[in-house]
Design brief:
The strands form six sheets. Strands 15, 16, 17, 22, 23, 24, 25, 26 and 27 form a nine-stranded antiparallel β-sheet that branches. Strand 8 and strand 9 form a beta hairpin. Helix 1 crosses helix 4 and helix 4 runs antiparallel to helix 5. This protein has 17 helices and 27 strands. It is α+β, with helices and mostly antiparallel strands and 605 residues long.
Length: 605
């Protein structure tokens, strides 16, 4: 088993379309929450009277690496301002969360795990030498309180116990003290056993439960990867069992699982929460790092290049709480929502539809993906996720120029002061592989012995569009890591208002994406696909100028609206025979098509 180590923001920098995406995020909601959103701007974490639980740590978890990746001095200063305020309020005994001593027992301990993880992220980005001691004192106090029975894990802390291991592993690398291992075992023993929850995952219920909560499940996938070494346990790839089960019972074509807010089955009109997307990405990043198994990197790409951009507006000032595979309109329900447990505005694009957790949390997606692009072990470097960027360790510099996943050409410019081994992961779907203009044998990864000096490596391969079978005898179209969908025209209707003291005002307002509801009932012939590539826009996953499209054939089929709704298609078509002439249709990348049909039937002929 190959264990890879992450580089930091000091060594990795974005380039090309990835830099554009991070700049959009910095100019959007994630980069401005401390200015416009009370839960961050006025948080109890910094001495205010607003929310003092998950919101600020969630936000910092993405804001900090974004700031340092972009080397933006203003963003970095604002991150430091929050960290300074949090550190200044740490109690003498080490407790750091904003509550009184009397409130500690009832305070959900998951946030102890979360803020400790965030402080580790800050240290890796900033090198602030205060942080190791702060985290040590937090966890030492945590060990005392848990081991003495002052409190036990409950609620979110019980279901997210593994989150503490980011900080525990960080500490154990620096001081191999026995209490750290003891704390690890206490936390694991008080946490939930996920195998006990599996019987509840078979059939979705319109009932909120800890055991079926989609974000708990998405986070959980990394539990063995982050905990097995500290617990002294053999790694058994338990995540594969869970992913296989969840995919069979709740899988969505964009790589995630239905969960609005709890598991929702296989219907293409059930949504999933944006928090689950970024947490599942984070889990896969750790799973690849621990195992070196390319399946986790491929699954990570599907999430990152489809589910993540699909749930954000082009300017990243608005996001959906729930994205839906087949969504012909994104407008508030004025009757009963179609979601299992979420509210009537959950698929609206806005400031904080449904709950504000995703508002704070979605920002970690792109920065942490960038930090997973290159990994290392000893004298070996691997390009795990081929997004455009630069690795510069001081004695090794690798610049990757690419428009992947929209195009499949990669130029590596390498300058090294010492010899090293360079590996490039090749995805399973790659065809007709070429290296430096010559045909090469297909393999899981290419290995290059790099000597001191300069070198350029050029890699290209082909990918073919194909139909992927979905439940209920539906199909979706894939090409490489990209999922494709049939886009529809829509009208953006701006909603400015104030609710519960939180103002929605342009640009941080809400929007309904009101679909035309015309000719959405499409079936596929899919006997041909014609690919067309364009330049990548200033908005990489543009909802107006997609970088790649597929032309194919389709026709209307008998497919009605869901009974009782005027903006939701039915789960399945009534018939699969064409009720119109064959026509050419254009499919866009799923992440570009905000109003779309993705799972469609094959037309019977």
């Amino acid at each position: 088993m190959q264990t890879w180590r992450f580089y930091t923001t000091k060594e990795i920098k974005p380039a090309g379309w990835m830099k554009k995406q991070l700049e959009i995020q910095a100019k959007g909601l994630c980069g401005n929450l401390d200015k416009v959103w009370p839960d961050v701007r006025d948080s109890a974490w910094i001495g205010g009277n607003a929310e003092g639980w998950e919101r600020v740590p969630y936000w910092l978890d993405g804001f900090i690496p974004m700031a340092y990746l972009l080397e933006d001095e203003d963003l970095i200063a604002r991150a430091k301002k929050y960290i300074d305020a949090i550190l200044s309020r740490q109690c003498e005994d080490g407790w750091i969360c904003p509550c009184t001593e009397e409130e500690r027992a009832g305070y959900d301990k998951w946030v102890v795990h979360l803020i400790s993880k965030v402080l580790v992220v800050y240290y890796e980005c900033s090198g602030d030498e205060r942080i190791p001691d702060v985290v040590y004192r937090v966890m030492k106090n945590y060990h005392k309180l848990l081991s003495e029975g002052a409190f036990v894990l409950h609620d979110w802390g019980k279901y997210r116990w593994y989150e503490a291991f980011i900080a525990l592993n960080f500490l154990y690398e620096r001081c191999r003290e026995d209490w750290i291992c003891d704390l690890a075992k206490i936390i694991r023993d008080q946490g939930t056993n996920f195998y006990d929850n599996v019987p509840l995952w078979h059939t979705p219920l319109n009932r909120w439960r800890w055991e079926t909560h989609i974000v708990n499940i998405a986070m959980m996938l990394k539990f063995e990867a982050v905990s097995h070494e500290l617990l002294g346990e053999e790694y058994r790839d338990q995540a594969e069992y869970f992913v296989d089960f969840l995919t069979r019972h709740h899988g969505m074509p964009a790589g995630t699982f239905t969960g609005d807010e709890c598991l929702g089955g296989l219907s293409p009109i059930r949504g999933t929460e944006l928090c689950s997307v970024v947490e599942q990405m984070y889990a896969y990043e750790h799973l690849y790092a621990v195992t070196g198994d390319k399946k986790w990197a491929e699954r990570l790409e599907v999430l990152a290049f489809n589910a993540l951009p699909a749930a954000n507006s082009d300017d990243m000032w608005g996001h959906q709480y729930d994205q839906i595979t087949n969504q012909i309109s994104c407008e508030r329900f004025y009757g009963r929502p179609i979601f299992g447990t979420n509210a009537d505005d959950s698929h609206r694009f806005g400031l904080e539809p449904n709950f504000g957790c995703c508002t704070a949390n979605f920002g970690q997606g792109w920065p942490k993906l960038m930090l997973s692009a290159f990994m290392h072990q000893g004298d070996t470097v691997v390009n795990a996720v081929p997004v455009p960027g630069v690795l510069d360790t001081g004695d090794i510099r690798i610049e990757l120029e690419t428009d992947y996943p929209f195009k499949n050409c990669f130029t590596y410019r390498i300058c090294a002061d010492k010899p090293f081994t360079f590996k490039v992961r090749i995805p399973s779907f790659a065809m007709a592989l070429q290296v430096d203009g010559k045909d090469a044998e297909k393999q899981d990864e290419l290995t290059f012995a790099i000597g001191p000096g300069e070198r350029e490596i050029n890699i290209r391969y082909h990918v073919r569009p194909y139909l992927d079978e979905r439940p209920y005898d539906l199909r979706c179209v894939r090409m490489g890591s990209l999922l494709f969908a049939l886009p529809f025209e829509y009208k953006m209707v701006m909603r400015e208002y104030t609710l519960n003291g939180v103002e929605r005002k342009f640009p941080y307002c809400d929007y309904d994406y009101v679909g035309s509801k015309k000719d959405w009932n499409m079936g596929l012939y899919a006997t041909r696909f014609e690919k067309q590539e364009m330049d990548v826009d200033d908005v990489p996953f543009s909802s107006h100028n997609p970088p790649v499209i597929l032309k194919t054939d389709g026709a209307l089929v008998e497919w009605e609206l869901l009974d009782g709704y005027d903006s939701v298609c039915d789960k399945l078509p009534k018939g699969r025979k064409a009720i119109s002439e064959k026509r050419e249709i254009t499919l866009w990348p799923y992440g570009c098509a905000k109003v779309r049909m993705t799972e469609m039937p094959l037309i019977e002929e």
